[in-house]
Design brief:
2 copies of one chain form a homodimer. Chain A has about 130 residues and is an alpha+beta fold. Chain A is built from 5 helices and 5 strands; from the N terminus they run H-H-H-E-E-E-E-H-E-H. Chain A has 2 domains: about 60 residues, Arc Repressor Mutant, subunit A (Orthogonal Bundle), CATH 1.10.10.10; about 50 residues, 2-Layer Sandwich (Dna Ligase, domain 1). In chain A, about 40% of the residues lie in helices and about 25% in strands. Chains A and B meet through helix 4 and strand 5 of A and helix 4 and strand 5 of B. The structure holds manganese (II) ion (2 copies) and zinc ion (2 copies). One zinc ion binds next to helix 5 of chain B. Chain A binds a DNA duplex (30 and 30 nucleotides) through helix 1 and helix 3.
Chain lengths: ~130, ~130
DNA sequence: TAGCATAATGATAACTGTTATCATTATCGT
DNA sequence: ACGATAATGATAACAGTTATCATTATGCTA
């Protein structure tokens, strides 16, 4: 039952107005640039609070956590190691097979994260140039 | 072309003799406890070198990187959020469908990581007790 | 509406995992 | 054995994140 304060509303609005995957630093910089007064600690706490309420989603990449809108259907991610571009995809069969694999091992699933690495269409071309 | 020094051989032997997923700290503690003289920086560099030569594998979990033997077939992981136990599984169909999903988005895949979270058989029982 | 309990804020310290620095030591080909 | 090259290890530095704590805002309740 965390509060939806002005700061948290600003974070939520920022994320909801985009299709990006934001890290904490990008969020605080965007808000400060937009004239808001907010500290990095508040952003970290706000992001955690919003996520715990299901208002935003997150993915944990190697170095840092990134947040995105929660009003999209579940999906997984492809990260381009060339330019950082993040592509989204969803695959019902993969999801179902994961559930089956967990079942077979006696696991009660609570979540999963599938990240694929590679080169996006654009970076792929630049490779063999 | 990194060298396989005594320290790196010790790291490799330790990992190859087990089925665990080791973090750097566990490795240095195990080696020091076994009488070896090795520093944490050397372990970090050794692990990176061994991985770059394909002699060990790694998975990047939320907080830290964990290393394991490379002489097993490719597999993915289920992590028990109750006790930390890591279960391995492999699923050819999931692998194939990933490749197909990447293709559809124009991605040239170089790798992937699928981690499932949940409760292992043991922790599951303790839950409804 | 004033008073109060409770929670959030923000500056900053602290912490964790990891990489960089640098003087010293080991390794390997000649 | 010599010398170039790479590895080692103690430790500083770094990045992302969480903890601390004094201050401020929020929302009940009387
Ligand atoms: Mn996404
Ligand atoms: Mn494994
Ligand atoms: Zn790209
Ligand atoms: Zn467990």
């Amino acid at each position: 039952m965390p509060k939806l304060t002005a700061q948290r509303q600003a974070i939520l609005d920022l994320i909801n107005a985009s299709n990006r995957h934001w890290d904490a630093d990008e969020v605080v910089r965007a808000l400060v640039d937009a004239g808001a007064s907010i500290g990095i600690a508040t952003v970290y706490r706000g992001l955690a609070a919003l996520e715990s309420q299901g208002l935003i989603d997150s993915i944990q990449l190697a170095d840092k956590k990134r947040y995105e809108r929660a009003d999209k259907a579940h999906h997984d991610h492809m990260v381009c190691t060339g330019c950082g571009h993040i592509e989204e995809f969803s695959h019902d069969t993969i999801e179902a097979l994961q559930e089956a694999a967990a079942e077979k091992k006696g696991f009660k699933l609570t979540g999963h994260q599938l990240v694929m690495f590679g080169f996006c269409r654009k970076c792929r071309q630049e490779l063999h140039t």
